[in-house]
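Listing S7. Sequence submitted for prediction.
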Amino acid sequence: MKLVFATHNKNKFTEVKAMLPHHIELLSLDDIGCNEDIEETGETIEDNAILKANYVRDTYNLNCFADDTGLEVQSLNNEPGVYSARYAGVSHDSNANIKKLLSNLENKENRSARFKTAIALSLDHEEVMFLGICEGEIIKELRGDSGFGYDPIFQPKGFDKTFAEMTLQQKSEIGHRGKAMRKLIDYLSK
């Protein structure tokens, strides 16, 4: 089975590919010659995942899944949420996003947060949605050099390490994307 994962993000692609069974040939947007950035104009992460999956299906006539992830910080009214990747501006600068988030949390006691991933699957013109959530908190300083995005400041509930201090396998086992991906894999296995 061939499936397109609607992403240009090499880190995310590697993380997801490592989880899939070997009988699924995973292709990225780069692999199918889709060089444009698919606009994420949805009001929710679910909307954005559907937009991306449908774009690939409609433009390239290929089975596809797409994800969108948001970091929701309780004391900031669930910001940055759908704007997580461009929280500090359209440049998708992870360091700037982290700096802005830490600044906005400076005088907040409640640092509870959660990562939420939505995966939209467009398979033979049927759409299915899978959600994964990982609860945790935002720590005050960056720790670790693995992962990407907000990983150096997100510490999952029940752990003393940030996502950036964990191996890819550890993060996949407990993380939001891993939870949503396991639901997708279960669905594809049926």
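Caption to Listing S7: primary sequence and predicted structure tokens for the chain studied. DSSP finds five helices and seven strands in the chain. The longest strand covers residues 126-138.
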